[in-house]
Amino acid sequence: MQIWVDADACPRVIKDILYRAAKRAEVITTLIANQPLQVPASPWLKSVQVGSGFDVADDYIVQHLELGDLVITADIPLAAEAIDKGAQAINPRGQHYTKANIKQRLAMRDLMEELRSTGEVRGGPPPLNQQDRQAFANVLDRLLAKHRKS
Q: Which tens digit of pLDDT belongs to each residue from 14-23?
């Protein structure tokens, strides 16, 4: 298993959790972004800068991930593509995307996008809080433990 991080919009606190988890579990974790990233020196951590443009980082992740890999992203379409390729996906708030819930999440995303475009809904999600960070860490630990057992 390898962890792929959609790093452009990934909060710093989540990246810090991932850095510690990668070292502890000895799992290669690659952060993909449109801009240069500094990651701590570790054989388990890598960063890749891709060109700018719509979905360039997402496309890179989808092209390189393999069955059983884990994708960290708040981008629901990217999560759906990862699941279609047999990967796991979680978002920075600790929501685990699965075959059972991804279609519903895509539909809700599309509905909210439409409501925002008409002005009926404004803004995005609330800022990441301590509960979100804990939920993310818990789901990540559970998936890493499951991987170690297999």
A: 999 999 999 9
Q: How far apart are CA 146 and CA 150, in angstroms?
A: 7
Do the beta carbons of residue 136 and residue 15 sit within 8 Å?
A: no
Distance, C-alpha 122 to centroid of its chain? 24
Q: What is the pTM of this model?
A: 0.87
The predicted-structure confidence for 76-123, as pLDDT tens digits, reads as follows: 999 999 999 999 999 999 999 998 887 877 767 666 677 667 777 676
Q: What is the DSSP string of 39-101?
A: --S-TTEEEEE--SSTTHHHHHHHHH--TT-EEE-S-HHHHHHHHHTT-EEE-TT--EE-TTT
